[in-house]
Amino acid sequence: MALAQGLARLMRRAAGSDVFHSFRSSRVTVVAAIVTALIFLASFGAPLIAIQNPFDPANLDLSVAMRPPVFWGGDWDFPLGTDDQGRDMYSAILYGTRLSLVVGFASVIVAMTIGIVLGLVSGYVGGTIDAFIMRAADVQLTFPAFLIALTLDGIARGLVKSDLHDEIALFVIISSLGLSYWPQYARTVRSSVMVERTKDYVAAARIIGVRSWRILWRHILPNAMGPVLVIATINLAVAIITEATLSFLGVGMPPTQPSLGTLIRIGNDYLSSGDLWITVSPGIMLAVLVLAVNLLGDWLRDALNPKLR
Amino acid sequence: MIAFLLRRLFQAAIVMLTVALISFVLFNYVGDPINAMVGQDTSLQDREKLRQELGLNDPVHERFARFVGNALQGKFGLSYRTAEPVGRMIMERLPATLELSFVAAMFTLLVGIPMGVYSGLYPRHWFSRVLQTVSLIGISLPTFLVGIIFILTFAVLPKTCQHGLVIAGVTLIDCDFVNWFALPAFGRGDVVNLGVWTTGFLTGAGLKALILPSITLGLFQLTLIMRLVRAEMLEVLRADYIKFARARGLKNRSINFGHALKNTLVPVITVTGLQVGQLIAFAIITETVFSWPGVGQLFVQSVYSADIPVMSAYLCLIALLFVAINLAVDLLYYAVDPRLRTAQAATRAA
After folding, report:
1. A32: which of A97, A116, A202, B75 lies 20 to 30 Å off by Cα?
2. Which H/E stretch holds residue A248?
3. ipTM over 0.85
C-alpha cells in the first residue's frame, strides 16, 4: 500500500516536472518514444508473437528457403519472406532486435560501471593513479571505439577456439563494446568528482567520520550521475550501431544466433541477385530503432542540460 | 613554440610506445607463433630449438626492444593466414585505402562546408531545414547500411531495368541510358601500377569505382562538418565585429566570407584533422561493403582468422597515422589562431 502510494506520488511528481513538460511539448520526441516502446515490446515479447524460434536449428527448412515477402508475391506463411536457410524473416527480425537491444544495454552498463568506478577513483584519489587512468583514457580516445571493439574481438578469437567462440560470442561482443566506451564516462565522472569533493557537504561528511568509499558512493556519485545518464542514452544508439556493424563484418554475432547486423550480412550476399528482402527489412528495422533512440538521446541531452534552458 | 612542439612529440611517442607494447603483447601471448609456423608433427625438441633460434626465450625487455626495432623497419613477421610478409601485404593494400580516404575527405570538405555556410547564413530557409533533417538521418544510419542503400540504388536497380521510362508508348529514358549511369559497387575498377603505388585516378573505370565508396565513407563526416560550420557561422554572425562590419557598410559577401567564414575555420580544421583518422578507421566498414582491396578489409579478415601479426601491424600503422595527424592539427591550430600564441607568450611573461 505504501509502495503504491509512493509510486503514485512519484508519477505525479514526474508528470509535473520540467523534463516531462519538455517531453510533451516536442512532438518528434513523443513519436520517437512511442516507436521505441513498440520496438521494445515487440522484441521482448518475441516468443509470444513470432512464428518460430529462429535460433532453433530444427526450424531451418531448406525447402522453403528464399521465399519472398507477402508484398513481393509471397504468402502469409512467411509475411516477410525467408532467408537462404529457410528461416522466417519476421521472427528472425524480432529475435534479432532483441539481441541488438540486449547487447546495446549490457555493453552500456559494462562501460558505465567501469567508467564510473575508474572516474570516482581517479577524481577522488588523484595523484599517480589519476594520472595513469587518465593517460590510459587519452590513449584509448585517440582511436575510434569501433576499432578497439574490433581488435578486442580479434584478440578473443586468438584466445578461444573458433567453435567455442560462437557460443560465447554474446559475452565477447558485450565486453569488447563495454571496454571500448569506458573513457568518456570516466572523464565525465572524474571532472564532476573534482568539483564536488571540494564542497562543504563532503568536508562535513568527512569530519563526522564517514568512510571514503561511502562518501564517494552515497554523496558524490548521485551528484555526478546527470551527465552520465545523458552519455549513456547517446551511447546506447552508438553501441547498437557498433554491434550491428561488427556483426555485419562477420565478427559479431554468428549466423546461428543472428542479430540485425548478421541478418543484413546474410542478405548482402543475395543483394546483386535481386533478392532484396533479406537485407531490406532488418535494415529498415535497424535504421528506425537507431533513429528513435538517437532522437530520445538528443532530447534528453537538451532537457537535462541547464545551460540550454 | 619549441616547448609546445617538444611536449606534443613526447606525448606522441608515449602513445606510439603504448600501442607498440600492446601489439607486442598480442604478438607474443595471444596464440603461439611457433604453432603457427610449424606443422603438427614437429617434435618438442625441434620446437624448443626454433624457439631458441628465434630468440623467443630471451628476456621480455630484449624481445620488446627487438620488436620495436623491427617495427620501425616495417618488419612484422609473416601472416598466420597466408604466410606472406606482413609489411608487404600492408604496403600492397595501403594505396587503395589512402586514395579512398583522400577522395572521401575532399568530398566531405567541398560539399560539407558550403552546405554548412548556407544553412548558417539562412537558418530559417526551408532548404536549411531539409539539410538539418537529412544530416540527422545521415548521422543515425550506420555506414554499412548507407553503403548497401547506395549499392541498391545505383548498382542493383539500374540492372533490373527492362523497359526504361515509357510514357504513352514513347520511350523517354531507355535502359542503355540508365545503365550508363549505373555505378560499379565492387572493387577498384582498373588500376595503373606505378611501381610502389597502384592508382585508380588514371582510368575512367578506376574513377567511377571510387564514387560510391567515397561518398559512403564521407557521408558521416560530411554531416558532422556541415553541422559544425553551421553552428560556428550562427555564433560568429552574432559577434560585435560582424555588426561593426555591417555598420561600416561592407558588402555582404565580404562580411560572410572574408570575416565570418574565416573565423569559423579554426575549429573546422581541428575537426577535419581528427576526422581524417576516423575516415581511415571507418574505411574498414566501407571497404568490406564495397569489396575494396584496402588495409581495412585486410584487418577484418585478420580479425576473423585471429591473424595476430597482421592485426598488430595494422594497429601500429593506424596509431602512427593518428598521432601524425593529431600533431599536424595541433601545429596548424597554433599557426592559424594567433590567440594561442599570445596566450602562451603571456604565461611565459607571468
Report:
1. A116
2. helix A221-249
3. no
